[in-house]
């Protein structure tokens, strides 16, 4: 691949013009930097969950059960498509972070140019194909007859909004890779606030707004995502962000084959992780459904609580990937190891504290999702007693896989996830349900998490993931290829004393 020379920073000039809120994640105390960087990511996860809950509230209270069924079926499709693009966005995040760590601004620009073109083509294709095939998608899902019409209307609007969603997700990931987790949070906040305000106005037709029914919820997503994306792009140019391409750099929109290959080959396994999780969830809910609607309601309520327990570990995992990737690019392998150690400890403390609070609150958290007199409430309490503690250990997998994939080693975490879900969790539940009943399902969750944690620890210690590369490094004449462990030609260790506390 024809590549610009690595940009070693000249004296007296910042390495990335217009960094603004971006930060060099290869410097400073590891734990403090990681926690500060992960807090906006955690805030964004909370906002997304809040947005979905508020939207469902307005649809269900304004339009009834049929409408919420329609929204639910369409949202399954939307989340699946966003899950696929997650992998490619994460690949772009790692490429940006590694080259920011190298102070290679020309390469950052090349990554952005290829990624923009790729996401434009992908989003346009998904939107067009999805708009045309919406009726067939809903039919294949077995959408209830009475909800099909509303679901089709909503889903087609969602497909129209998909280019905005794809670019929004991509730019958020790219900014985190460049060391800025605050700006994505601010614009996520803007998008969620607009969506929450517009939903009741467009659904019910308050004031000058037209009454659009279920379509109003779709158009509120379209408007909020589109407007927030436009504001985010504007902010990048006003701040002279290194991620923004200017007129003389538009030639970089012509895809670079090596970068394009990395986006697809490295992004696909990360996207497949979302499909593996979704597939396993569908199998588990099928098992739960066999015990009746009360048990299914209890499981649904308990799983809502699990989401909030996992949020700190998920935020840390995302932050760890960006932070580790910058240090991989800077060849700070000692610091990468400290990031892994700090991430595991912080994750255990954060998820452990969250789980402890939920246990102490008893049924209070479950009553948010179930009435106090519901027959499902004691069942949900029983489920949480057996499952909730296991998600504390899940932070080990999130942290270590976040470090591993920062190098481009993406197949190992995918295989580990598949084994934990389909070789451990599901077979265990299936084999013991005849004798243990539903308890076999509940105990399969912590068992799968323990298996995943142990495999991730083993892979981190012995997997050879440090030799992985997102793109093949150039080999100048007379210079041996870097195995990923040797001291780099330009090392950032001089910026920070080796004794910095982690």
Automatic annotation (TrEMBL):
It is a multi-pass membrane protein. Residues 1-25, 476-502 are annotated as: Disordered. It holds the Pfam family MatE. Keywords: Cell membrane, Membrane, Transmembrane, Transmembrane helix, Transport. Residues 1-20 have a biased composition (Low complexity). It is found in: Cell inner membrane. It comes from the Bacteria. This is MATE family efflux transporter. It comes from Caulobacter mirabilis. The lineage of its organism: Bacteria, Pseudomonadati, Pseudomonadota, Alphaproteobacteria, Caulobacterales.
């Amino acid at each position: 691949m024809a590549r610009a020379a690595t940009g070693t920073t000249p004296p007296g000039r910042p390495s990335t013009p217009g960094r603004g809120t971006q930060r060099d994640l290869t410097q400073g105390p590891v734990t403090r930097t990681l926690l500060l960087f992960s807090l906006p990511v955690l805030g964004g996860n909370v906002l997304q969950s809040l947005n979905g809950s508020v939207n469902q509230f307005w649809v269900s209270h304004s339009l009834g059960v049929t409408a919420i069924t329609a929204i639910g079926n369409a949202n399954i499709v939307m989340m699946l498509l966003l899950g696929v693009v997650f992998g490619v966005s994460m690949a772009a995040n790692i490429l940006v972070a590694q080259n920011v760590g190298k102070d290679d601004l020309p390469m950052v620009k090349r990554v952005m140019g290829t990624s923009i073109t790729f996401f434009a083509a992908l989003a346009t294709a998904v939107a067009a194909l999805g708009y045309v095939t919406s009726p067939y998608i809903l039919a294949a899902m077995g959408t209830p007859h009475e909800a099909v019409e509303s679901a089709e209307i909503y889903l087609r609007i969602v497909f129209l909004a998909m280019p905005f969603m794809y670019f929004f997700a991509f730019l958020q990931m790219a900014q985190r890779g460049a060391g800025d987790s605050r700006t994505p949070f601010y614009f996520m906040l803007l998008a969620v606030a607009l969506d929450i305000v517009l939903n009741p106005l467009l659904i019910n037709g308050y004031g000058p707004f037209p009454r659009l029914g279920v379509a109003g919820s779709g158009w509120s997503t379209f408007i909020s995502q589109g407007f927030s994306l436009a504001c985010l792009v504007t902010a990048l140019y006003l701040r002279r962000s290194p991620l923004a391409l200017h007129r003389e750099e538009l030639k970089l929109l012509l895809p670079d084959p090596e970068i394009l290959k990395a986006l697809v080959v490295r992004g696909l396994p990360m996207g497949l992780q979302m499909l593996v999780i979704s597939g396993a969830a569908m199998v588990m809910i099928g098992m739960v459904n066999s015990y009746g609607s009360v048990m299914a309601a209890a499981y649904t309520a308990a799983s809502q609580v699990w989401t909030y327990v996992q949020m700190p570990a998920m935020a840390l995992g995302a932050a760890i990937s960006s932070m580790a990737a910058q240090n991989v690019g800077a060849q700070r392998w000692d610091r990468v190891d400290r990031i892994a150690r700090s991430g595991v400890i912080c994750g255990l403390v954060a998820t452990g504290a969250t789980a402890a609070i939920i246990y102490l609150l008893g049924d209070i958290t479950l009553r948010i999702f179930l009435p106090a007199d519901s027959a499902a409430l004691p069942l949900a309490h029983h489920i949480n007693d057996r499952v909730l503690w296991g998600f504390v250990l899940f932070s080990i997998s999130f942290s270590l896989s976040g470090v591993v994939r920062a190098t481009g080693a993406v197949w190992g975490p995918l295989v580990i996830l598949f084994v934990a879900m389909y070789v451990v969790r599901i077979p265990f539940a299936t084999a013991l349900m005849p004798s243990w009943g539903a308890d076999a399902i509940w105990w399969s969750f912590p068992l799968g998490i323990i298996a995943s944690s142990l495999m991730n620890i083993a892979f981190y210690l012995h997997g050879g993931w440090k030799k992985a590369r997102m793109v093949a490094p150039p080999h100048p004449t007379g210079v041996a290829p870097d195995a990923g462990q040797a001291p780099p030609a330009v090392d950032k260790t001089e910026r920070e004393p080796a004794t910095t506390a982690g």
